[in-house]
Task: inverse folding
C-alpha cells in the first residue's frame, strides 16, 4: 500500500499545468481529487514518474449559469455539486448523482473532472453527463475545444482527450420545458460503484409525447453509453407504461456486458433493463407534475 | 449501596482518548533508530521455491538485510498450534516458507531497511523462482483419494477426523414414522477485517538482554511465552505490550510469522524493528473465519419434534495450523443442537488442508456455524410440515431450568428460551407481520420474516476444556491516596472493560468511579492472564477482579472494625466510607487506607498494604441465549434484499452496563447480517484471492442497515458471582440465520428450500425467474 517513488508537481496556474503535462508526456499523470489515482498507485497498478496535482487551480472550481447554460469547473467536488442550490433547482439529476458516489470523504475530495477523465466503467458521472447531453472542455497549449459527452467515452478507461489536454469544465444545455430527470443506481456492496447506474432526462411536447430522451448507462459494459436503442423506441411516442417497459428491455442491446463476482453478464443485462425502465418512469413522473 | 454503578449506562473511560486520537496504537510507537520490515509474499497458491534472488534488493538504498526461510531455519522456532487434539496432524509451519509455498500471501522473505518505504521498494526487487504445483481449494476435491497432497509428509489433506455422538441412533433410524430432510449448507469464508490491521514493534536491548514487543494482539501473555520459545530467550526477559488494539474479532488471538520475524531481526541488529500490515496483507495473510460445508440429515416427527440430527462437516483449515485452527470447527459440533432437546446427534468433523490462508477464530468461532445449521434446520422442518417456525421451536425447547444436559453432553448453565422468544414476538409484532405478509403475497410481493433462537457458549472457560488455560487473574490495589488501581490479565481491545471493571470495583469499594483506573495488556505490569476472546473478559476476568475486591474489603473491614468497635461483618462500603448499615458508626475510606499503609496499629496477623490478587477458575462455561426476528423485503424484479426491520432480544445474564451491551450487540448484528447478505472471501480454483481489496471484499457498512430494535432479558448465571455470561459474539451468532430464514420465508411461494450465503441479488433473481439458485 505504498506507491513507487514519484515526483510531485503542484502547478499554480492552468498555463503551468499545461506546460508540465506536455513536458512529462506519458511519464506524467494528472491528479485532481486523487481518489482514483492514489489507490491505484498504492496498489502499484499505476506508477507514474510525475504526479501533476491540479488541486491548487481554484480557477477550475465553480458552478455558474449563463445564457441558460450551466458550466461546472472540472475541480468542483462531488459534494459541491451535491449541495449546490443552483443545480438542485435547474438540474436535480446532478446532485442526485453526486449523492450516490462513494461516501462523505470521497465526495469531499473527489472531483467531477477527475472522475470523467478517469472514465471508470462503473463510475456514476459518465451516465449523468450522457443523459444531460453535456459538453466537456479540453484545454491544451494550442487552445480549447468542446467535446460532446457522447463522443467523450471511447473505451475502457479511455476518453477522447488527446495527449497534452486537460479536462477543464463541463457545460450543460438548458433544461427543456416539461422535462424530468433522475439517476438510479444499484451499488456494489464492497466498492460502492455502480453495478448498474442509469441517468435519464426526458422532455414531453404539447401532446405529452416524448419529445427528447437521453439515457446514460454505467456499470454494464466497458464504458458508459447512451441506450440509443431504447431512446429510438420512445422518441415521438406517448409514454405508456407498456412502451417504457418494452423499450427498456433493449437497455443493453449490443453492449459487451461485464461479469464479476457480484453479477454475471446476463444478470447485469437484466438489471440494465429494470433500472432503465424505473428511471424512465420516475423521470416521466417528474416531467408530469 | 447508595452509589449505584452496576447496571447503569456509564460512559466509557476509553473513549475520550480514542475519539480524540490521543492514544497509541502499535504504529504510533516511534523508537530511536527503528528499522522497518517488508515481506515478500508468494503470488502462487502452491509452488516449489527454486531460488530466491535478493542481490538487487540488498543493494537498494537503506537496505540492511534480506532473510529467507533458509536463513531462519534452526534460528527461529515454528509458528505454534495450541490445539491439543488426539491424532491431530500438525505440519511444520515456519515463519518464512521453506522450499514450498502453500497459499497466496505466504511470507517467503523479509527485507530489513532503515525506512519503511525503502523496505517496501526493496521487497518488490526480490525475485523468487517458483515452479507452480496444482492448487487445491475445493474441499470435496481435497479429501478425495486422488487429490494432490499439500503436506506430503502427512499422507493426505485430512488433518483430523472428530466424532461426537449421543442418543439412541438405532431407535431414530428404525422409526419409519419419522420424516427426513437431507441438505447441504455452505458456510462461506469471511475476512475478520479489523479496522486496525496487525502490527508489531520488537525492541531488543543487547546490554540488558531484554526484548520488548508491542503487538496488536488479544493475548499478550500467551504471545510472550510463545515468542520466548520461538526466539530461545529466557521468558523472564521478554515483555509483551498490547497497546490500543483497533479491533480483532479473534484474528489477533494468534501468534503470527511476522511477530516472530520482527523479534528475530531486532535481536540480529540490536535495534527496534517495526512492521505494520497493509490492508492487502490483512486480507490475505491474517486468519480467515468460517468456511465449512455441512451435510445434514434431519429426522423429525410429523408434529415438528426433531428426533435426530446428523452432520458431516468439512472444515477448511487452510494450508497450515495457526494457534487454534483445528479447534474451531469442534465448537460447531459441540453447539450443533443449539437450544433444542434433540435426543440423538451424530457429528463427524473433518479438518481439511487447502491452499488457502489458515482459518481460525473469527467472532463466534465455530458457534455461528452451529447456530446457522440448527436454526436453518428448524425452519426447514417448519417449512416441510407447513408449521409456523415459532411452533416448531417451542416444540423442541427444553423446559426452562438450570444445568440442562443435551445429547451432545453439553451442560447449559441456565435456559429460558421461551422467555426471549415470547419477548421478541411481542417486540416485533410477529402476528401482525404474518398478516401483512399474507396480504402482500396476494399482491405478488415478497415479505419475509425470519427467526433465530440461539444459544451460545461463552466465558471461556474451564481450564480442563481449554487448550491453554481458561482461568483469569485480577489485582486490586488501593493506593496510599485512596485511589484504586485495577490490573487485569485479560486484554480488552474495544469491548470497554476499563469501564465495566471500574464499575465493579467502585461499586464494591464504595469509591467514586473516577477514582478507579484499570490497566491491562502489559506483561510487566499486570499479572499473568489468558487474554480477551470467547466472550470471557467480564465473566471470567471481571469475576477475578470482583474476588480481589472482596479480599480488599475483608482486610479493610478488619481494620475499620478495630477503629469503630464493630464486627467486620456488620460493615458496608459506601460513599467513600466504611460504616454500619445504619450509619451510626462510620469511618472514611481514606482513613482506613492510611492505617493499612502507615501500619501503626495493625491487628495481629494482618500484613501492611492494600493489594490483593485473585485467580478465578470458572467451573463451567456460560450459555447466553436470545431470540431475533428479521423482516426483509425482496425486490421481485432484481432480487435485491431490503432489510426492513431487525428485532433482537438477548439474554447475556446480568447486565453491568447496558451501553456496552448495546454496542456489542449492534456490532455483532452488523457482522452477522453482513455474512448473510454480502460478505464472502473468495479464492478461485487456482487459489488466487478474488476479494483481495476492499473494492471486492464486501464488509458491511453502517448505511446498509435499518435501525436495530434491541431488548434484553436477564437470566443470571450461577457460574460466577456477578451473574454475567458474556455478549461479545451473541449478535454475530444469532443474526446470520435470522436473515437467511427471513429471505427463504419471503421466497416460500416459489418452492425453494435453501440458498447459500451470501444472499446476493443475482441468486435470488435466479429463483424468482424459476431457475436454480446455486449457479452464482
Result:
Amino acid at each position: 500500500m505504498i506507491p513507487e517513488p514519484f515526483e510531485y508537481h503542484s502547478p499554480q496556474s492552468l498555463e503551468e499545468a499545461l506546460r508540465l503535462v506536455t513536458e512529462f508526456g506519458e511519464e506524467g499523470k494528472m491528479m485532481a481529487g486523487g481518489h482514483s489515482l492514489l489507490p491505484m498507485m498504492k496498489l502499484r497498478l499505476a506508477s507514474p514518474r510525475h504526479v501533476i496535482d491540479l488541486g491548487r487551480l481554484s480557477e477550475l472550481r465553480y458552478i455558474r449559469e449563463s445564457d441558460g447554460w450551466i458550466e461546472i469547473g472540472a475541480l468542483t467536488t462531488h459534494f459541491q455539486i451535491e449541495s449546490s442550490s443552483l443545480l438542485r433547482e435547474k438540474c436535480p439529476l446532478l446532485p442526485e448523482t453526486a449523492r450516490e458516489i462513494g461516501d462523505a470523504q470521497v465526495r469531499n475530495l473527489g472531483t467531477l473532472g477527475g472522475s470523467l477523465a478517469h472514465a471508470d466503467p462503473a463510475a456514476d458521472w459518465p451516465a449523468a453527463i450522457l443523459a444531460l447531453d453535456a459538453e466537456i472542455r479540453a484545454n491544451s497549449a494550442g487552445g480549447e475545444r468542446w467535446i460532446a459527452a457522447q463522443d467523450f467515452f471511447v473505451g475502457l478507461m479511455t476518453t477522447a482527450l488527446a495527449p497534452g489536454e486537460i479536462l477543464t469544465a463541463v457545460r450543460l444545455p438548458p433544461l427543456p420545458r416539461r422535462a424530468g430527470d433522475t439517476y438510479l443506481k444499484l451499488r456494489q456492496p464492497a466498492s460502492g460503484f455502480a453495478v448498474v447506474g442509469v441517468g435519464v432526462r426526458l422532455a414531453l411536447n404539447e401532446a405529452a409525447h416524448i419529445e427528447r430522451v437521453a439515457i446514460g448507462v454505467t456499470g454494464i459494459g466497458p464504458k458508459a453509453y447512451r441506450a440509443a436503442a431504447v431512446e429510438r423506441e420512445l422518441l415521438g411516442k406517448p409514454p405508456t407504461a407498456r412502451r417504457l417497459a418494452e423499450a427498456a428491455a433493449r437497455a443493453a442491446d449490443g453492449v459487451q456486458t461485464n461479469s464479476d463476482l457480484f453479477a454475471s453478464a446476463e444478470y447485469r443485462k437484466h438489471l440494465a433493463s429494470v433500472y432503465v425502465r424505473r428511471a424512465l418512469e420516475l423521470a416521466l413522473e417528474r416531467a408530469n407534475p | 449501596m447508595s452509589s449505584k454503578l452496576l447496571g447503569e449506562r456509564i460512559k466509557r473511560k476509553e473513549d475520550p482518548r480514542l475519539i480524540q486520537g490521543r492514544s497509541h496504537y502499535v504504529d504510533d510507537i516511534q523508537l530511536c533508530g527503528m528499522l522497518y520490515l517488508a515481506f515478500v509474499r508468494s503470488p502462487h497458491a502452491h509452488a516449489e521455491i527454486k531460488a530466491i534472488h535478493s542481490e538487487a534488493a540488498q543493494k537498494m538504498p537503506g537496505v540492511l538485510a534480506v532473510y529467507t526461510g533458509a536463513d531462519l531455519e534452526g534460528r527461529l522456532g515454528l509458528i505454534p498450534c495450541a490445539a491439543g487434539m488426539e491424532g491431530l496432524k500438525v505440519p511444520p509451519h515456519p515463519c518464512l516458507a521453506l522450499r514450498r509455498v502453500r497459499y497466496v500471501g505466504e511470507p517467503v522473505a523479509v527485507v530489513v531497511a532503515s525506512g519503511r518505504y525503502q523496505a517496501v521498494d526493496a521487497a518488490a526487487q526480490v525475485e523468487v523462482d517458483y515452479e507452480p504445483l496444482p492448487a487445491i481449494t475445493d474441499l470435496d476435491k481435497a479429501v478425495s483419494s486422488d487429490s494432490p497432497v499439500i503436506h506430503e509428509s502427512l499422507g493426505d489433506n485430512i488433518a483430523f477426523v472428530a466424532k461426537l455422538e449421543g442418543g439412541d441412533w438405532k431407535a431414530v433410524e428404525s422409526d419409519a414414522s419419522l420424516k427426513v430432510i437431507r441438505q447441504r449448507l455452505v458456510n462461506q469464508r469471511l475476512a475478520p477485517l479489523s479496522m486496525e490491521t496487525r502490527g508489531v514493534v520488537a525492541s531488543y536491548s543487547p546490554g540488558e538482554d531484554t526484548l520488548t514487543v508491542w503487538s496488536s494482539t488479544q493475548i499478550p501473555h500467551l504471545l510472550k511465552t510463545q515468542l520466548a520459545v520461538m526466539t530461545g530467550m529466557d521468558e523472564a526477559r521478554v515483555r509483551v505490550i498490547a497497546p490500543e488494539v483497533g479491533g480483532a474479532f479473534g484474528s489477533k488471538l494468534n501468534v503470527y510469522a511476522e511477530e516472530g520475524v520482527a523479534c528475530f531481526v531486532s535481536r540480529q541488529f540490536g535495534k527496534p524493528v517495526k512492521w505494520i500490515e497493509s490492508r492487502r496483507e490483512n486480507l490475505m495473510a491474517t486468519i480467515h473465519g468460517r468456511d465449512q460445508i455441512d451435510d445434514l440429515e434431519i429426522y423429525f416427527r410429523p408434529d415438528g419434534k426433531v428426533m435426530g440430527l446428523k452432520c458431516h462437516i468439512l472444515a477448511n483449515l487452510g494450508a497450515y495450523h495457526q494457534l487454534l485452527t483445528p479447534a474451531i470447527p469442534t465448537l460447531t459440533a459441540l453447539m450443533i443442537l443449539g437450544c433444542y432437546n434433540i435426543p440423538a446427534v451424530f457429528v463427524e468433523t473433518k479438518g481439511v488442508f487447502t491452499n488457502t490462508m489458515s482459518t481460525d477464530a473469527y467472532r463466534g468461532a465455530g458457534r455461528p456455524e452451529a447456530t446457522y445449521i440448527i436454526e436453518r434446520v428448524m425452519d426447514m422442518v417448519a417449512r416441510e410440515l407447513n408449521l409456523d417456525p415459532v411452533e416448531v421451536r417451542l416444540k423442541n425447547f427444553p423446559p426452562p431450568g438450570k444445568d440442562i444436559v443435551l445429547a451432545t453432553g453439553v451442560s447449559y448453565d441456565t435456559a429460558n428460551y421461551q422467555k426471549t422468544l415470547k419477548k421478541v414476538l411481542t417486540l416485533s409484532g410477529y402476528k401482525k407481520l404474518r398478516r401483512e405478509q399474507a396480504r402482500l403475497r396476494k399482491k405478488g410481493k415478497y415479505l419475509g420474516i425470519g427467526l433465530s433462537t440461539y444459544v451460545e457458549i461463552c466465558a471461556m472457560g474451564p481450564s480442563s476444556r481449554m487448550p491453554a488455560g481458561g482461568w483469569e487473574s485480577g489485582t486490586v490495589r488501593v493506593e496510599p491516596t485512596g485511589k484504586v488501581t485495577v490490573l487485569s490479565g485479560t486484554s480488552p481491545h474495544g469491548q470497554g472493560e476499563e469501564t465495566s471493571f471500574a464499575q465493579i470495583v467502585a461499586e464494591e469499594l464504595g469509591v467514586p468511579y473516577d477514582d478507579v483506573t484499570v490497566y491491562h495488556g502489559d506483561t510487566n505490569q499486570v499479572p499473568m492472564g489468558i487474554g480477551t476472546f470467547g466472550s470471557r473478559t467480564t465473566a471470567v476476568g471481571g469475576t477475578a477482579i470482583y474476588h480481589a475486591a472482596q479480599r480488599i474489603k475483608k482486610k479493610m473491614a478488619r481494620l475499620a472494625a478495630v477503629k469503630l468497635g464493630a464486627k467486620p461483618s456488620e460493615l458496608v462500603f459506601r460513599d467513600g466510607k466504611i460504616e454500619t448499615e445504619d450509619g451510626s458508626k462510620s469511618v472514611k475510606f481514606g482513613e482506613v487506607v492510611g492505617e493499612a499503609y502507615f501500619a501503626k496499629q495493625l491487628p495481629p496477623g494482618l500484613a501492611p498494604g492494600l493489594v490483593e490478587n485473585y485467580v478465578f477458575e470458572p467451573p463451567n462455561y456460560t450459555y447466553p441465549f436470545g431470540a431475533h426476528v428479521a423482516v426483509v423485503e425482496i425486490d421481485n424484479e432484481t432480487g435485491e434484499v431490503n432489510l426492513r426491520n431487525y428485532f433482537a432480544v438477548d439474554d447475556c445474564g446480568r447486565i453491568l452496563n447496558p451501553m456496552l451491551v448495546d454496542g456489542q450487540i449492534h456490532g455483532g448484528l452488523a457482522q452477522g447480517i453482513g455474512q448473510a447478505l454480502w460478505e464472502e472471501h473468495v479464492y478461485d480454483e487456482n487459489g488466487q484471492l478474488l476479494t483481495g481489496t476492499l473494492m471486492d471484499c464486501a464488509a458491511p457498512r453502517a448505511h446498509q442497515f435499518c435501525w436495530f430494535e434491541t431488548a434484553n432479558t436477564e437470566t443470571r448465571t450461577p457460574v460466577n458471582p456477578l451473574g454475567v455470561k458474556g455478549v461479545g459474539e451473541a449478535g454475530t451468532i444469532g443474526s446470520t440465520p435470522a436473515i437467511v430464514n427471513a429471505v427463504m420465508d419471503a421466497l416460500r411461494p416459489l418452492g425453494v428450500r435453501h440458498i447459500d450465503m451470501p444472499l446476493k441479488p443475482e441468486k435470488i433473481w435466479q429463483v424468482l425467474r424459476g431457475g436454480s439458485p446455486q449457479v452464482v
The mean pLDDT of chain B is 96. The first strand of chain B starts at residue 35 and ends at 41.
